[in-house]
Each structure stands twice: as structure tokens, then as C-alpha cells.
Amino acid sequence: MRVVLINRSDQLGGAAIATLRLMHGLRQQGVDARMVVVDQHGSDQHVALAGNALTRRWAFLAERLDIYLCNGRCRDTLFKIDTATHGIDVSRHPWVREADALLLGWTNQGMLSLHGIERLAQLGKPIVWTLHDMWPCTGVCHHAYECRGYLSQCAECPLLPSGSTLAAKTLRRKAELYSHAHIHFVAVSHWLARCCRQSTLLRDQEVTVIGNPFPTSDYSYDYNPRPDLPDDAIVIAMGAARLDDPVKGFDLLIAAMRHLHEQNPNLAHRVHLLLYGDLRDMSLLGQLPVAHTHLGYITDINALLRQAHIVLSTSRYESFGYTLLEGMASGCIPVTTGAGGQADIVPHLQGGYIAGAADPADVAQGIEWAVKASIDRAAQHQWVAEHFDAQIIAKKYLNIINQMS
Questions:
Q1: Cβ distance 173 to 114 under 8 Å?
Q2: CA 117/CA 104 separation, integer angstroms
Q3: Residue among 333, 13, 133, 241 nearest 21 (CA)
Q4: Are the beta carbons of 289 and 115 closer than 8 angstroms?
Q5: In the sheet that 2-6 helps form, which strands lie side by side, from edge to edge?
Q6: For 356-374, how does the pLDDT look when each residue is reduced to its tens digit (9 = 90+)?
Q7: Which CATH number fits domain 2-213+389-404: 2.40.37.20, 3.40.50.2000, 3.40.30.10, 3.40.50.300?
Q8: What value does the mean pLDDT take over residues 251-256?
Q9: Sheet hosting strand 291-296, strand order edge to edge
């Protein structure tokens, strides 16, 4: 079987990493799996660029220009929405022509236009579209947050000027595409699937839940304590591409640490936060009432997480939650909020703790639970391997393809 995966990038972003891992998982299953992108950073021989430098650049800039003119020339929302009005025609790519099935990933920002997806559908091959965020079931946004416009017609998009019809118009274009293109949608979490099944666009479509693949065998789980910390330190790791992105809930982290400091000062005195990722507002660190180290950008995340006992996420929204899997594969106990796909990863009160969304007291309670829990690091690693190994995930995709063929 020949399968082509289509994603904007091969390495940049969570969707790119997940798609590349899925390709490798499929190849391990004996599938001739290849990947087509418009933003290539690696040197994998099974990854190819679509289009040429000029067409790729034009597709990206033309769509951004359209959005810029429609959003009141507001740069703040320029990359928070996508319209898929421009893209590369990958239906002509020889790998796509030869493929038996197509797997779409994150295809925005000049990769595929809606018209381009329609041309792929006209090839008559099974198409499986993995949703890494909400964009395929909304008008133009990737995360609806508190907005419920996608449940109807996206008539008043909060990311666009009042009276704009761009979101509603894009939603109608998607509805037209979905009405005749045979696409099987895959959500990477049950939370995302629920959003899809409630949406006006996908409530009548096939939506299956398959988590993202993870290379568990690449991760070691034996504890390797930091030499600069006391032996009785409770090390909590938390990371994100940008820690103070409002979605990541740094304010919730501060509130939870304050609650822990007030209610359990003895434990708070032992806590040491290891924070990794970009932090634009460094003054936020001064609001933490517990010991902490900001490490910035980290290349060897496994080495860092092996120094921790707990991996923490205070995100308000996560389609999936790779940092939790990385932590568990490294032997950590996860403590997280339940506002998104985290619940698919963390077995509550068995291998981790799921706190109420935006509840600092519950996050603090989760940390207390994790400190007392007797959970073997090897067992955490094994749980990830049994549920999210790339070959296990690849088999689930192959089942869908076989059913569509």
C-alpha cells in the first residue's frame, strides 16, 4: 500500500512532528508511506517539497494579504485565522498520483486551499483528515475558546471586525466541500471530537478519535536528580513553546503555587519548578512563591524530564498534550487541567491527576496527590508505549483506510 501524508511542515510544530512520526509508524508496518510539505527542515528521503519556491511563497503571502485586508489591517489576529483561499495544487505531485490513500494533517498557511482539497477528493482516493486543532470545524479560527459561533454559522467572529462576513463565508465554502468530498475525519482527542460532533460543519460527518503517535522507545525513564537541588526537593517540570501564552495558563500556575504555599508551606518549601520554553514577560517569575529555574529553550527534553518527579500543565485548551506524554514517557507523574485532550492521556488517580479547569486549589491538590502517590516510573513509561506507540496508532489509521477502500 502507498500512502502519502500531507502537512505544511515536516518538523515545525506539534502537527508536523505527529505527522512525521505517523509516517515512520506506517513504514514500520510495511506501508510505502511518504510525506509532502511546503516547509521542509529535515533530510528524510521520504519527505518531499510541493510546488516551487515562487508558488509556495505566493500562496502564503496572498492568503495573509487577503486576511489583513479583511480583518481591519489588524496584525494581532493575522495568524490566528486561516481561510484556505490559496495553496499548492499537490494533486499533480507524482507521489500523490501514485498513492492509494491520502492522509491530511495541518494544511493551512499556503499548503492547501479548499479548492486544492477538492481536487484531491476528485482523484477518488480514500482521504483521512487528522484534526490537530478546531479549524476544519470552524469558520476561520483554530481555537474557538469561549465562542460558540461554530455551532451555527460563525456569523459574528470575535477575531474579525464587527459586520465581517469572512468567517461565515469560509464556513459555507467548507460546508460545500464536505457535502460531496468523501473525507473521514480523525480527532486527536475525545474533547476535539466532541467539538466536531457539535459543530454545524462536522456533526453529520464520520469522526474517529485516534491519539497522536509517540516514540516511547526514544525516551529513558530512570530518575537522574539535579546536583544543584536538595535531595528532598520535589521537582516539577512545566514547558511550552511560549510559557506566557494566555492559553498555557501561567496565571493559573502562579495561583496554584500561592495556594500551595499558603495551605501546605512545608511541601511548598520543597517544591522546585523547572520551567522550559520562551517567556516574554520575565516579571512573571517574580510572582512565583516557590523556588524555580527558567531554562529557556531545551533541546533534550527527555534529559530534563528525567530530573523531575511531576510534569505539570495548566493549559486552558489543548487539542492533545504532548508535554504530558513526554513527561510520562520519562517517568513523571502528570498533573493537569481537564480542559481539552489531556483527559485522554492522563488516567485520573491512577497514573496522574486531572484538576478542574481554572481551579488553582485543585491543581495544588493534584500536586499533593502526586507527591504521595506511589507510582513506578517504568510503569508510566510502559503506559505510554501501550497506548500511543507509533505502530499502534498507524494500525488504527490503516483500519480506517481499509474500510474506505
A1: yes
A2: 9
A3: 13
A4: no
A5: 47-49, 32-37, 2-6, 101-104, 127-131, 183-187, 207-209
A6: 888 999 999 999 999 999 9
A7: 3.40.50.2000
A8: 98
A9: 291-296, 271-278, 234-242, 310-313, 333-337, 353-355
